[in-house]
Design goal:
This protein is mainly α. The chain has 2 helices and no strands. 4% of the residues are buried.
């Protein structure tokens, strides 16, 4: 039973009974006061549980974000490595082609001189 939802009702009953007199009224006042105290304690406990759950969820979110950042860093590093390798391969291919064209030009020059 969630006593916290009855807290306003208990408080209203306590106020209503404040004007009553006699032994039964006194007992009713004590009962209402006890109900208000229980409702307040239940509310405090619910707030404490919510705070713990919020703290746990925050820690889990922080961990997930840290892992995602780590994964993104690894992926960025892999992309950079791939780009460096592609650039090196392109430079090698260009150098090879340049050597081939230079060799061909030398051969053509040699043939022209003969």
């Amino acid at each position: 039973m969630n006593i916290a939802r009855y807290f306003p009702l208990c408080a209203l009953a306590l106020v209503a009974l404040a004007g009553c007199t006699g032994p039964e009224a006194e007992q009713a006042k004590r009962d209402a006061s006890s109900a208000v105290e229980h409702a307040a304690e239940a509310t405090k406990q619910a707030a404490d549980r919510a705070a713990v759950k919020t703290r746990d969820a925050t820690a889990e979110s922080r961990q997930a974000l840290s892992e995602a950042a780590h994964d993104a860093h690894g992926a960025a590093r892999a992309v950079a490595d791939d780009a460096r390798q592609a650039t090196a391969d392109a430079a090698d291919a260009t150098a090879k082609k340049t050597r081939e064209l230079a060799d061909k030009a030398d051969r053509n020059a040699d043939e022209t001189r003969r």
